[in-house]
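INFO batch 0412 | record 1 of 1 | parsing
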Amino acid sequence: MCSRHGSGRWALITGYAGHPVQHCPGDGARGDHAGAEDEFRDVLPHLERTLGPDHPVTLVLWLSIAREMAARGDHAGAEDEFRDMLPHLERKLGPDHPDTLAAAEWIAEYTPLA
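INFO prediction complete | emitting tokens
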């Protein structure tokens, strides 16, 4: 469980505290998937710049963006995001890591819907 120490995008960063970003309560948890996606997209460049594009926290946020896209019905866009991130996950986390396997599963799930 993460605690929120702020609001909006900065709560996502300060709330990490060793736990994946997707576990932090945000707009998506309240049903506003477009709002959550926007917040995550606002934060992503900051994480890429400070932690690097292949840092596990950055990758988890990227996963969260794709999940929010799928949740709001953009299956083709979500599939593209999952496909783009899969090589990064495989390289950084390994092919058997749960997040890597989840991304591959999501690709398989969303491909017929795209």
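INFO post-check: The longest helix spans residues 75-93.
INFO record closed
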